[in-house]
Amino acid sequence: MEYYDLLISILGSTIRLSIPLIFTALAGLFSERAGIFDIGLEGKMLASAFAAACVASISGSPWAGLGAGIVVSVILGLLHGFASITNRGNQIVSGVAINFLTAGLTIVLGQAWFGQGGRTPTLPGTARFSGITLPGVDAIRNVPFIGPLYANVISGNNILTYLAFLAVPISWWILYRTRFGLRLRAVGENPGAVDTAGISVEWLRYRSLIVAGILCGFSGTYLAIAQSAAFINNMSAGKGYIALAALIFAKWKPVPVMFTCLLFGFLDAFANFMQGKAVPGIGEVPVQIFQALPYILTCILLAGFIGVAKPPKAGGVPYTKER
Fold it and tell me: What is the pLDDT of residue 279?
């Protein structure tokens, strides 16, 4: 049972660490399916985390923090759209600019407003999303195998965790079972055909960025007021880029996106567990090696070891209406 308890601990940590990746990768899924490459996912996540922590610390309400995180993220998404859709600018440059903007602005504003080196004040428990105990936990806690799994992995998570997993089938349904999803996928493959059908390509792409902004708002809020109790400088720590790698590895499909994010979360959880532990036959391995595992996997995936991953044909190409 000792090894099973260890596995349960790692699985619980895997779930918690995967949530921001799932939200962010789904955000990239909507924008890239519409033909907009969104390198700015990292910046939107960071800005929404800062906004959520600020508003939650002032209002004492995690829901107000979530609303602020979503609003800020959507605004940045619209800024990205204005640069790359309306003005037909380079989408990569626009996304990178958003990342630089938010990385610097959150530090400057955090220091100016709170004077804690760019951090926000530590939030009380009432201003955070706390864990939810699901029904029947006490009744089956001591049942072998099933009890610990239900009590420590499935139960005890905050509401944003359950919303992240719920967002996966909802995203699949939107993309593959609704008119909006059909048009969204079409505009990422052949925007000229969509335009010929009398549908606004620009408005569809803006809507995809709004959806992406909402999902990034959930992601940043989770980082600041669910997983943590305050905003910390650069707390996104490259998760936006890892989410993009997960999106490519999953070949722009919602369910594979979830499993890929869980894989990255598992590597992160395993790295945390191995800190200070000795590997049989090797001894204690520097913790930096384990911490680098998610990023090493990212490089491997992006180097093309996943087979051919074809992005939407019109991805990254500004659309010019034919006269």
Answer: 63
Q: By the 8 A CB rule, do 250 and 303 touch?
A: no
Closest by CA to 181, choosing from 34, 17, 21, is 34
What pLDDT, in 10s, does the model give residues 123-135? 888 889 988 888 8
Map residue 65 onto helix, strand or coil.
helix
- d(C-alpha 211, C-alpha 77), whole Å: 9
Contacts of 63 by beta carbon, 8 Å cutoff, 6+ apart: none
Side chain identity at residue 291, one-letter code: Q
pLDDT band of 51, cuts 50, 70, 90: very high
Number of helical H runs and strand E runs in the chain? 14, 2
**Residue count of the chain:** 323
CB 56 within 8 A of CB 201: no
Domain residue spans of the chain:
2-125+138-302
* Kind plus residue range of the DSSP H or E element containing 122: none
CATH class of 2-125+138-302: mainly alpha
pLDDT band at 155 (very low <50, low <70, confident <90, very high): confident
Rounded distance between C-alpha atoms, residue 176 and residue 172, angstroms: 6
> What is the maximum span of the chain, computed from C-alpha positions, in angstroms?
70
261 within 8 A of 25, measured Cβ to Cβ: yes
Q: d(Cα 44, Cα 46) in Å, to the nearest integer? A: 5
